[in-house]
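Structure ticket #2291
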Amino acid sequence: MAAAHPRQAILVVDDDEGLLILMADTLRAGGYEVLTAASAHAARAALQRERPDLMVLDLKLQDGSGPALVAELQSGPGRVPFVVVTGQGDEQVAVEVMKQGALDYVIKDTRLLDVLPAVTQRALAAVAQEKALVAAQVEHQRLEREILAAGERERHSIGADLHDNLGQQLTALELMCAALKEEAAGQRKLTARLDVMGKMLRDAISQTRFLARGLVPVGSEPDALQLGLAALAEQINALGRVHCHFAAAERITVSDPLVATHLYRIAQEAVNNAVKHARAKHVWLRLTRHDALLELEISDDGAGLPKLRSGHRGGLGLGVMQHRASAIGGELTIESSRGAGVKIRCSVQSPK
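Resolution: structure written out below.
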């Protein structure tokens, strides 16, 4: 029989001493490190000392049995993957325990020692596959965060170039145009052309600043998110169609500029949806903090979200918001009913 990885430890729990020894010897022959416990009490003590890679658990112990024992042994952090051993006729109990997370079960009969190694190997393979999947998901999230962070850095760089370089050059050209206009006093045609040029330059400067603000919506200061949300509400109010209310009970700081930027973008997308699609009359922005939990809520009194055929509400904007929330480790929830508006809440762990 091929040897397993030497670091894989298995805890075998059974109050039949003879069978316990036989199962332990069978698994040791497969190259596993085997720990044993002859009671539920001994199993608890063993799990407190060490967390094995797998537990082989008899469902009928003198000091505990069945699903209740599984729930007890699996409570708390660091749950241990397990397979169960059950007597003939108790398959229904084994099925119930599998609903609690058991990876497999074996029956106490003459074939037990023959099938135990294969069941154990299959269970450990499932555990390894799940760990690999979790690791892949973590890596995927890390790469997503890096890509979004790189995108935000690039936007900041372009925004800074627009403001500091192109904006300054356009401003200098406007000043030069104003100086030329003074020198051309009395030349009506030239003065008129310089007036047009000056207006065009002022419009170009305004558009450049608008683009720069769009690329860099919030700064790197700790209170930049709160200031940015207040400015967003003012911009919406300036449109004259929707009244946007912003509320924060205190000065709320965010130490991570990336978190602040993504929360602002979520608010911006939600507000734009309320203004453009939901026909809302009022939009409310709320920013709150409870210790390290930062919460942004955007609600409106518009038409609500339509349901898709699958029964789920969706759209590119909502997908982008979900993506941004995931990138900063946040949780996005959406509540909506037809004609009763939308409430979007993003919660994220963020130190001050």
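Closing remark: Residues 3 and 184 are 95 Å apart (CA to CA).
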